[in-house]
Please model this.
Amino acid sequence: MVNSSTKIFLVGNPNVGKSVIFGYLTGTYATVSNYPGTTVALSQGEALIDDKKYQVVDTPGINSLIPMSEDECVTRDLLIQNEGLVIQIADAKNLMRALPLTLQLQEMGVPMVLVINMCDEAARAGIKIDAKKLESVLGIPVVTTVAIRKIGLPLLKERIKDARPCTFKWGYSTIFAKALKTITGALPGEIHGRLSVASMLLAGDRHISTRFKSQLSNNVQNIIEEQCRQVAAYFAEPVSFLMNRERSTLTQSLLEKVMTTQKRGRAVGAWLSAWTMHPIAGMIVLAGILELVYLFVGKFGAGTAVDFIENGIFAKYISPAFIWFFDKLLPFSHAHNVEEGFLVGSYVLSGEANPIFKILHDCFVGPYGLVVMGLSYGFAIVLPIVTTFFIAFSLMEDSGYLPRLAVMVNRLFKGMGLNGKAVLPMVLGLGCDTMATLTTRILETKKQRLIVTLLLALAVPCSAQLGVLLGMFGTMPMWAFWVWLFVMLGVMFFVGFASNKIIAGEGNAFVMEIPPLRVPKFSNVAKKTLSHLEWYVKEAIPLFLLGTFILFLLDAVHLLTRIQKLAAPLVVSILGLPAQAANAFLIGFLRRDYGATGFFDMYSHGQLSVVQALVALVVITLFVPCVANVFMMVKEHGGKVAARMVFFVFPFAFLVGGVLNWVLKGL
Amino acid sequence: MLQETTEDLGFDEIKDHILVRAWLNQEVGKEEPDHCLSQVDPLEVERATSELVKEGLVQQKNGCLKLATKGENQARSLIRRNRLAERLFAVVFNLSEEAVRAQACRLEHEKVLTPEAVEGICSFLGHPPSCPHGRPIPPGDCCRLFVNEVRPLVTPLSLEEVGENYRIIFIAPKYHSLLERLSGLGVIPGATLHLLQKRPSYVLKIEETEIALDKEIAEGIYVVRHTNGHGI
Model:
């Protein structure tokens, strides 16, 4: 039945294990976590099943084919635009929510297979499902699995060829059925899945009616509008809700035939889960987790690991080796300075030098050399922190703690026009703001997405930035750190609060599914961390090198001193910093953590006082994270919005710095 | 049961039913049969109609009945009584669909339910916005004042206690898109939920799904306490 280039769409409610099955079928890794909405964009891969090639598409989770947020819209659009077969993945504990979706897929008329996943968890909860019976009722292959342990997956592979449209007998109540019949009849034949499109139209789905507008004659549009109007006028409650309700009621009676539930006592997991969300115990758990993360990322990652790689490897072996190599390759009379017994990039010139040799030499191993500055920064200072952060983050994600954190901070976020759900992009932002900006898609309203994007760009330091900051605060008095933290949180809440008032749009109601607590799987944490690291090395390291190269160029043509003069009024008068601080700000436009490194350098050479360093760090933390982040903002919200945000962030950063300088000087 | 009701319809009841039908037609903009009138002598219906016209409750235009302001008020309270009664029988006694309809047809008349009784039922049910079929219930004075003198049977989840099971009777959210989102998660009328906590956010469990939500949303979820099995 199925030809060689068939597409397989993995569809299902959020957090049911679509990405795990995707990984199994295609052999490629898609981010897997215990958090609804992990997959925000489509992943594609090829699978070879029974010597046939399939194109497998992993989709964001949906609860209904009438989309409520952008990631849901992605899945729905894909299904109505493409032909192929669907593997619907259901959580065995939650068939009540999965089967209404099956009914909607049936309306589409796509050939499908139903996977009932997490059967182990369901069995523990006392749920028994008669898959055979369900298969005969629905008329499609039903496979039970425990995907993370690969149980049942080989069988799934075998049964893909049996995929066929669902033949369950059901119907809506008369008033809907009549309207659906009229609309389906009016729709032109070339639209596939007409019944499904009709029910989306009847449910008042805006996206779909604009999509098909051009394909429909005025007459047909009028018929549809008239039907929708009549049915809508009949009820006090929205039509889509009533239709959902009918599908749910139907599911309920269907499940009574195929499912039995035995009540079990509250498991250990349930107690633990309750603690993590308790108003008081939850705060203690949160404090404990923060402490652990600080010890692991701040102390171990930013301290021990950075120290080892930077001083133990880069300063001792790699930098001197490259300096030695380039000195031999491009000889000119100079002597590199020695710090703590090892050669460093800066040097003293003795006599005339070949200008070409000197420039090439400086480009790689000079004070702003790609090797001694760019690579050692990217790999030695930032990489250990990024790694430890993502390990910690993956653990939190896979255990299911993050949604519980959302429950804890929901109230706090409300003041900023957000809700608890925004905690995921905000925490992820501590790893990488660019990645987090992409993840804002899980939020329901445009307004929330805009506010979170702005806050990420402004006040959430990414792990690269945090690394430098933690390193620097380690050498500064403790109060400096608290002042910095206070200013950051203050700015975040102030800007969040203000943008909540300014940005138009309603509704930040908090509704979120809380997945069960699970013990994270080591292999998944490792895979996920590696895939984040791969991303980091590909995206960030080239930027580090580019930044270093620009610094080098500016230095080579003596532009740095000129820029310093130009920026003096701002840097010297308002922020009270020495003129060279302009260099760091300049490079901070490219990557703010890189700017911070500049200050780190100045501070460790005694060129900045504690107050100056603090002011500089506050300003640079408030900068837009990096160029890649700006690109992501453009991609997600368009050039106009991104430009507005950028033009707000930079002046605002200097403004806050100016005020802080003024206040600290006054004390 | 339907037959029993219609046979002993008095003349006033027939007049009431004509008003109801006129209201229904205006509500949806087209003809709709009134279940209670189908078995009544057409001559009686005609006589009642002309009397309604005489009393200034309805106007007759091209064979169609249109409610005058006075008739509209009367029809509104009829509809209100009818749909509240439907709610009452559906929620409290879990009656079948036909039984609910038949009972409601009997109870809608003013002779049966006094205004005080209607307000009592309305408060008892937590001032529901719609009947079990999703049709709107016209609000009365008690809804506007939202007096909770009677301890309502159906209360917002926010007034209930943690650790108990509740059956969802209806959901009246601040905006409609929320209803769809909730129903996608299985929060629908008829579902049984277990309230796990109220602070810092509400967490409830339906089947095996745990759902967190705001207090504001919980205020719009109307429930009755659930002991064992169905009903209360």
Notes: Chain B touches chain A through 46 residues (CB under 8 Å).
